[in-house]
Amino acid sequence: MLKFYYSGAPNPMKVALFLEETALPYDPIPVDTRKGDQHKPDYLAINPNAKVPAIVDGETVVFDSNAILLYLAEKTGKFLPEKTSKARGELLSWLMFVASGVGPFAGQSVHFRNYAPEKISYATNRYMYEAQRHFSILDTHLAKHHYVLGDTYTIVDMAVWGWARLIPTVLGDGAWAKFPNLKRLVDEISARPAAQRAIALKDKHQFKTEMDDEARRAMFRHLTEKVA
Ligand SMILES: N[C@@H](CCC(=O)N[C@@H](CS)C(=O)NCC(=O)O)C(=O)O
User: Fold this and answer.
1) Spatial contact of 78 and 137, defined as CB atoms under 8 Å apart
2) From the CA of 82, how far away is ligand 1's center (Å)?
3) Tell me, what's the pLDDT at 46?
4) N or C, fewer C-beta in 10 Å, the chain?
């Protein structure tokens, strides 16, 4: 059975949503990143990047959330747009836009707003600005399209949902008012039974919730390993 290495964080949740939408049988394996599970040799052999999610599907190992979405969509033939070169171009563009823009900037915005030991207004403003800019691009696009790729619910919407549902954490309370079209999409996906099951998945395992010294050492290794 497909093994799904996960936590309740945004990138694993995209994959949990896909697995629940398709009802593919899977074995969810918790990786408690606040306890340092991501750095254990057995896990590094699966994902050398020491992050969640990752999957093992027979002999196939895939890490990085959007790569996993694409792999699973191609494997099952589900949640993909029509098979035209034009649609393929749009799929790859928006999927990589979420992977390389939305996710990293939203993640850094959360980091500098909530976890950086010093409040650095330059860094906070840069990442919040870029996160807001990326979400605005999606919002403008969604004013004219029901889903990111048009009329069909695809893996791109799942990738967007993983991060966009946390917009208040990324940009602060009240930020939803700036993205009404994106909110419409996120609310629609969150109301799906598969999304409810994906969100509930983490309750099957006990994940550490405290952001204490052990968690900071595991997740923010630059605190102790200086490169500058
Ligand atoms: N590009 C990767 C990023 C994965 C990632 O940053 N995962 C976070 C959770 S959302 C994580 O594992 N954090 C733990 C850590 O950084 O130690 C992906 O899309 O899967």
Assistant:
1) no
2) 30
3) 98
4) C
Which of 49, 51, 166 to probe ligand 1 with, by most ligand atoms within 8 A of CB?
51
Q: Which residues line ligand 1 (CB under 6 A)?
A: 9-11, 33, 38, 51-53, 64-66, 103, 219
Mean of the pLDDT values across residues 187-213?
97
Cα 55 to ligand 1 centroid, rounded to whole Å: 14
pLDDT of residue 55: 98
- Tell me if 121 sits within 8 A of 140, measured CB to CB: no
Strand partners, 87: none
Contacts of 212-218 spanning 24+ positions with Cβ under 8 A: 214/34, 214/35, 214/36, 215/33, 215/34, 215/35, 216/115, 217/36, 218/33, 218/34, 218/35, 218/36, 218/38, 218/39
Q: What's the confidence (pLDDT) of residue 225?
A: 93
CA angle 162/71/163 to nearest 5° reads 10
Q: Average pLDDT, stretch 187-210?
A: 97
pLDDT digits (tens, 9 = 90+) for 118-161: 999 999 999 999 999 999 999 999 999 999 999 999 999 999 99
> How many angstroms separate the CA atoms of 182 and 176, rounded?
9
114/132 Cα distance (integer angstroms): 17
Matching residue, tokens 């990138």: 11
Expressed in angstroms and rounded, the spacing between residue 86 Cα and the centre of ligand 1 is: 30
Nearest residue (CA) to ligand 1, atom 11: 51
The alpha-helical segments, DSSP class H, found in 23-102 are: 41-44, 65-76, 85-97
